[in-house]
Each structure stands twice: as structure tokens, then as C-alpha cells.
Amino acid sequence: MSRSLAIFDTDPDAKPRPRFVADTVGRFRSGRMIGNRPESLSEWRVTTGDPDTAKAITALMGGTSEEWETAGEDGLEILTDKDAVKIVIDGVESIRARMVLWGRQGPIHECDGAVYLSPDEDKGTPCGCPKLLADRKAAAKSGRGPAPSIELKFRLADDPTLGKFKFVSGSWELVKVLHEVENALERVGGPALCTLRLELVEFTTKAGVDVAYRKPVIDVHGKVPADIDAVINDASPWDDVPF
Asked: Per its UniProt record, what InterPro entries does this chain match (predicted)?
């Protein structure tokens, strides 16, 4: 039985690592798990399975690349120094928004807030979710109803050649303004220069408790500058990849 060269049998550390293969090259995250407890972050955390992408992120956004325990392909994480990043969103089709209640095997309820999106036999029929936002939030918090799942795909404006990244959010605050983001992208009518940032929110409850957290914000500025547009049109292997 034939085999490839054996030159790495005696020097395994020199063997090139397999390149990360996925529909996106990395994922932006606004939090992490510490033990069994979620922790909200004030700067972006980026995970990837590609060492070259990790190196590029640290050069652009600071931080250091380290391995982290995950069942996914993105086994490298970078805790960056940035709470905002300029991005390029190709259009409104780069956003996927839905309401999902997850089970052990996947979604057990998936809708747009009014009708089912899956399974096929229920698609388009009323989902039965509460009409009031407060009731929707209460049902999701108790585990009886779906919660927002907003997926965004984008490139980094500072280096579009890296490929597309993904950001997934369950933020109700983002849900409230998502239509404004989508409308702004439709007005641009093509690749849009945007900012993806974590905004600090602080307030005091009626009970006198101080609350502070970060919410994701997408600012749409307008069409991408000509120099960035030229790079994007240079043929990217990550173009037109479905969710």
C-alpha cells in the first residue's frame, strides 16, 4: 500500500497543520463561559480554527491567540482589545433573524414571531407565540418559549481578504432595532461600511439595584469606500455562502 513521504515521522512538530475549513473563517463573541457561568465581555472575543486568521486578528485587534476547549472547529480564541470594529456587510441578506427554542437534538420551535419557519409541515402556520414583547421575553426566560437568534455575516473592513466572519446574538435590545439596520442596508443597496460594537448600558432599577451590561450595536454608515470595494470584488472563496 503506497503512502506519502515519511519526512514528518521523525519531525512531527514541523508537519503543517490542516487548514481550517468552514463557511466562515471565525466568529465574533460578546461573552464566554467561566465554569458553568456566562460572563459578558467589554471587548470582542474572536474564535477561529485557522492559525493564520488568529494571527491576523491579533495584529488588527490586539490580544493573544490561545487554545480553548470547544466541540467545534474554532479551537483558538483571541480576547481582543477592541469593543468596536469596522466591518463590511454585503446586504440585508447577510442577516438571518429568527426565534428559536432549542432542544437536545436541535430546534424544537423555530418561527419569525408570527409563523413557523420549520419543520416543513408546519412552515407558514401560526406559531402561537405571545403577542406582547414582555410576554415573549418571559416565556423565553422560563424556557417555555423561543428566544431571538440573530446571525450576521461580514468581512473586516481593515482586511476583507481574510474571509467572512459570523456574529450570533440573542440580544432583545438588538431585536428592537434590527428593522432599522435592515432598512439602512436596503437603502445602501450593496456592500455597506458598518461598525459592530459593544455599547455599555447602565441603569438603576426601581429597587435601587445598579445594573450594567454591554449590548451589541450595528451602525450602518453607507457604501464601502472604493478601495475596499475593489478588494471585495477581487473574488473571495467565501462569497455567496448560505447560512
From this structure: Gp3-like
